[in-house]
Amino acid sequence: MPEPHSTPLHKTRAPIPRRLLALAALVPLLAGCEGIMSALDPQGPAARDIATVWWVMFWGSVVLFGGTMALVLYALLRAPERRVGIGGGMRLVIAGGVILPIVVILPLLTYGVSLGTVQSSPQVPAALSVEVIGHRFWWEVRYQDPERPDQVVVSANEIHIPAGVPVDFTLRSNDVIHSFWIPNLGGKLDMIPGRANQVRLQADNPGLFRGQCAEYCGPQHARMAFFVRAHPPAEFEAWLAAERGPAREPDDDLLIRGRDAFLERACVDCHAIRGTAAEGRVGPDLTRVGGRLTIGAGTLETSADNLAAWIADNQRLKPGNQMLPFGHLPAEEVEAIAAYLESLE
Ligand code: CUA
Question: Which protein residue's CA is at the shortest distance from atom 1 of ligand 1?
Answer without folding.
Answer: 178
